[in-house]
Predict the 3D structure of the following.
Amino acid sequence: MKKLFTLMMAILAITPAIAAKMPMPSDAPKSYESECASCHMAYPPGLLGEKSWQNVMSGLNKHFGADASLDAKDQKEISSWLQKNAATKQKYNVVAPDNRITKTPWFIREHDEIKADVWKRAGIKSAANCGACHTTAAEGIFSEKSISIPAK
């Protein structure tokens, strides 16, 4: 019984660390980095579900205020890859309101202590700028241990 309890406590201790990791799949197409990450962080596809990625990729001509249209080859390659690697875990696999990661219930719950004026700081600019506070976001690590919120 003591061994079972110890094992359960060990699992509970590492669960937050596992949940904070969202690594970029190793098969990311070069077009994802060159096209998508040229304007914003290359978001790990596991942050949204398949339907949300379909929505994002079908509206690139009006992509959050910009025309991010792609040639047909890149559009198909990136769309297929995003959908193949989309979230399957229920927490992330919800249709994102307005196709925004920052409007998903899990994002809001994780950031509920952040006041609205913090997102507007020059060093952050918006909630979509993960790397402004999550110092290891580029590696797909969103652990609370690697947070450094810019003062300005």
Summary: The chain is about 40% helix and 0% strand.
